Amino acid sequence: MATYLAVPPTEGTFPRDESAEFPRARGDAITGDRYCSKEFAEREWQKMWTRVWHVGARESQLEEAGDFVVHNFLHESVVMIRQKDGGVRAFYNVCRHRGNRLVMSEEGGVDQHLTCPYHGWKWNIDGALDWVQDPEDFPQGNPCGKLRMKEVPCETWGGFVFYSFDPNAVPLMEYLDPIPKLLANRDLKNWKRVVWLTVRVNTNWKFASDNFNESYHLPAVHPQFEPMIDDHYSTTIFEMYPSGHNRMIEKLQPSSRYQNMNEMKPLWADVLKEWDVDPAAYEGRAQEARIALQQARRKLGPERGWNHFAGFSDEELTDQFHHTCFPNFTITGTPEGLHVFRTEPDLDDPNWSTFDYWYLSPEIEGQAEVPTLYGMRPWVEAQHETALFGLAEAKIAQGDFLSQDLAVAVSQQLGLRSKGHDDAYLAEQETRIRRFHEVINDYLEDRR
Ligand code: FES
Ligand SMILES: [Fe+2]
User: Fold this and answer.
1) Ligand nearest to the CA of 131
2) Per-residue model confidence (pLDDT) at position 8
3) Does ligand 1 have an atom closer than 6 angstroms to the CB of 162?
4) Residue owning the nearest CA to atom 1 of ligand 1
5) 41-64: pLDDT as tens digits
6) Domains contained in the chain, number
7) Residue 156 lies in a domain
8) Which residues sit with Cβ closer than 5 angstroms to ligand 2, an ion?
9) Is the minimum distance from the CB of 138 to ligand 1 under 6 angstroms?
10) 115 lines ligand 1 (CB under 6 A)
């Protein structure tokens, strides 16, 4: 039977938070309408999306004062702008003259003003209105000095720029707690986004939080990982935090699900060889090689330019740290980098969503290129690529896990719409999924 932990694990030196609990859930049903009804999607907008913090950009997109990034979310649009004092402010992307959308491009830079294309009003990057045509012709008074762009809360963490539609939003660090603490060993602000891919997928936005909240799907969907990712619940750490965020930690070692978990298999052997660990020495005790790999990376990391290893705990040198940050921001820390998923609802149809995959990599000294899901990429900020699901195929030895996940997301959406579906029948290790839906319900029913 399961060895679920009643309290947060005390073994190991990786960052942890005392608010962590073993997954518990009330038992709210995960019904199909949540994924396909327009009425439900509208309630999500009214009660939840208008309250939470949204990830809008990377700070690296805003190098100089006047640089801006536009983020469209459903029918809304927000423009985030670097200020002269180095801060970032965010505004509704709308001109207060007669409501024209101010900026139509995805990103760019201005010296001092955003100029509305309709009647030419000039909005200062700090939100003030500096110039209008015929200022003397306003009987109610010159709007300059009176009007400002409508501002929304905007804060940064780890190089990510967040905004909220809620003027009374709690401070970002309070909202994210304890995620920043758990990722404290990674200097995310200085890691570069070397892959920036946006895919339109015919599935509801919630698929990602659901899917990345469990590792139960690994054997069926990603069988290729069996020799190197331990997906079994008996060795996985599942945590939930009062803030609604979750964490799951999987060990890098052959899966404990199988009798032959201590046989050395090719994929695992390759990982070990790369770090001068002799696979033959671990034949018959393949799982023990995880510790050997930690030691090898600790020792060889600096001379190979993997300087970020110096700040990592032993576990972080091997294991996968999956964080689901409520509601739609999933961050997985691996020894090599950070996989970021952001899913957002579609403007017209809850059966569609936008899936963003960002891969952040630390600098590896002496290497101009870093390994990614899409092959070796230069260690520079990536250009934005967009695709319809099915057109972006990764080519890595471990197989394209992202396309595998998206493929089941599409087929699951078809089933969730059926009258044949009324609730999920979850394993204990999937509890975080029900809990995710319960946090949504807490927003929709005014308990948060
Ligand atoms: S709507 Fe922007 S200047 Fe008129
Ligand atoms: Fe997956």
Assistant:
1) 1
2) 54
3) no
4) 98
5) 999 999 999 999 999 999 999 999
6) 2
7) yes
8) 405
9) no
10) no
Indicate which atom in ligand 1 lies nearest the CA of residue 116: 2
Query: Separation of 169 CA from ligand 2 center, angstroms?
Result: 32
Specify whether 394 is located in the same domain as 306: yes
pLDDT at 374: 87
- Reading phi first (left if > 0) and then psi (alpha if -120 to 50, else beta), residue 399 is in left
Q: How far is the CA of 361 from the centre of ligand 2 (A)?
A: 20
Neighbours of 67 (CB within 10 A): 20
pLDDT in tens, 373-416: 889 999 999 999 998 776 555 555 556 888 899 899 999 999 99
| Domain carrying residue 127 | 53-165
Q: Are residues 158 and 251 part of one domain?
A: no
CATH value at residue 69: 2.102.10.10
Compute and round to an integer the Cα radius of gyration of the chain: 24
| Residue 79 DSSP SS3 | strand
Q: Which amino acid is at 325?
A: C
Establish whether residue 97 lines the binding site of ligand 1, counting it when its CB lies within 6 angstroms of any ligand atom. yes
Last residue in a domain, options 165, 200, 215: 165
Is the pTM higher than 0.85? yes
Q: 325 near 54, Cβ under 8 Å?
A: no
Q: 314 with 244, same domain?
A: yes
Report if residue 170 sits inside a domain: no
Q: What is the pLDDT of residue 2?
A: 44
Nearest to 390 by CA among 110, 199, 178: 199
In a domain, 400, yes or no: yes
The whole-number pLDDT of residue 302 equals 96
DSSP codes joined into one string, 178-208: THHHHTTTS-GGG-EEEEEEEEEESS-TTHH
Same domain, 210 and 239: yes
Based on the domain organization, do 194 and 147 belong to the same domain?
no
Residues 122 and 40 in one domain: no
**Which residues of the chain, if any, have pLDDT below 50?**
1-3
Say which ligand is closest to the CA of 401.
2
pLDDT, residue 85, reads: 98
The response to whether residue 26 sits with its C-beta less than 6 Å from ligand 1 reads no
* Listed residues 107, 134, 165: the one ending a domain: 165
Report CA(64)–ligand 1 centroid distance (Å).
26
Is residue 173 in some structural domain? Answer: no
- What pLDDT, on the 0 to 100 scale, is given for residue 3? 46
